[in-house]
Amino acid sequence: MVKERETINTNIRLNLANPDDREAWEHLQRMDRKKYKSYSRAVVIAVNDYFGRSERAEADPYLETREKEDAFLQSVLDAVEKGAKEAMPMVILNTLIGLLQSAAVNGQIAVISQSSIPKNGDSSSGNDKQEASLDDALSFADNF
Questions:
Q1: How far apart are CA 5 and CA 14, in angstroms?
Q2: Residue 62 contacts residue 52 (beta carbons within 8 Å)
Q3: How confident is the model at residue 112, as a pLDDT?
Q4: Nearest to residue 138, comparing CAs of 97, 106, 95?
Q5: Cβ contact 110:100 at 8 Å
Q6: What is the pLDDT of residues 53-110, one digit of tens each?
Q7: With bands split at pLDDT 50, 70 and 90, how would you rate the model's confidence at 124?
Q8: Which residue, among 142, 105, 112, 108, has the nearest Cα to 127 in the 3D structure?
Q9: Are 95 and 141 in contact, with CB atoms under 8 Å apart?
Q10: CA geometry: angle at 113 spanning 134 and 125, to 5°?
Q11: Terminal-to-terminal C-alpha distance of the chain
């Protein structure tokens, strides 16, 4: 019975006169030693990534285009969501003001003038209710 080897040694020869080889060597020289403990780990990850992507691209030639389109679409969605969150308070406020104005025009809201507000001890229950309602409406509008 032949036992399969667990470790294989191989050499990589880089020709520093070749720009691609030089670039590979420079990547290996500045790699993050915390992430890649050795050249072997970095080479294994790079080779697997390269050939894995090549095989997926052969099986699905539009994979890279779809990935770029998905990334672009996600950035557009994020921008729209951010813009909507920033604009929403103003939209709500404008809608509330429009509703209050249309209700006032239709006579559904009693508008309090300075002359109808009771002075120093003059209190009538109708005016107090109107004032309380107006205070409640203004407090509600201040929340936006």
A1: 26
A2: no
A3: 46
A4: 97
A5: no
A6: 888 877 777 767 877 888 888 989 999 888 888 888 888 888 888 888 777 666 655 4
A7: low
A8: 112
A9: no
A10: 60
A11: 79
Cα separation, 102 vs 133, in Å, equals: 17
Element (H, E) at 99: helix 63-105
Q: What is the DSSP string of 12-80?
A: ----TTSHHHHHHHHHHHT--TTT-SSHHHHHHHHHHHHHHHHHHHHH-TTHHHHHHHHHHHHHHHHHH
Whole-number CA gyration radius for the chain: 36
For tokens 């249309």, what's the residue?
Answer: 102
